[in-house]
Design brief:
The chain has 128 residues and is of the alpha+beta class. The protein contains three helices and four strands.
């Protein structure tokens, strides 16, 4: 039986996303479960405000590859006082964002927390 949009909607990764997925994978932009092993033993104080005020800024921690990692990462950051959210699409993974933060100290602490959790290159962004 066919579906309303034909066979393309049954593919694991839709055709329009296959090239971006290949780029993300080849450039090492994904955080795999093994990369997050430090999260189990990371001991950091809760993220707290401090330092000079800054425009609201989030941290893009990285991209996780499965729903279990997404749930664990979101719970980890929430438990450490860093509001966390995720967005994504099938095949692209889930992008993890922390914040937004209104002080430089909180932004720095959130970035350090992401590194301690196993994310390789978290960076500040004002997009999300």
């Amino acid at each position: 039986m066919s579906t309303p949009s034909g066979p393309d909607d049954r593919m694991a990764i839709p055709p329009a996303l296959q090239m971006p997925v290949a780029g993300i994978q080849s450039l090492g932009c994904l955080t795999f479960s093994d990369d997050l092993a430090p999260m189990a033993t990371a001991t950091r104080p809760p993220v707290a405000s401090g330092g000079p005020a800054i425009p609201p800024t989030s941290i893009h921690a990285g991209v996780v590859t499965n729903m279990a990692d997404e749930a664990n990462v979101l719970a980890f950051f929430e438990a450490h006082g860093a509001g966390a959210r995720s967005i994504g699409a099938a095949g692209l993974g889930r992008r993890i964002y922390l914040g937004p933060f209104a002080t430089q100290g909180a932004l720095d602490q959130a970035r350090d927390l992401a590194v301690a959790a196993g994310f390789a290159a978290p960076y500040p962004t004002r997009r999300f």
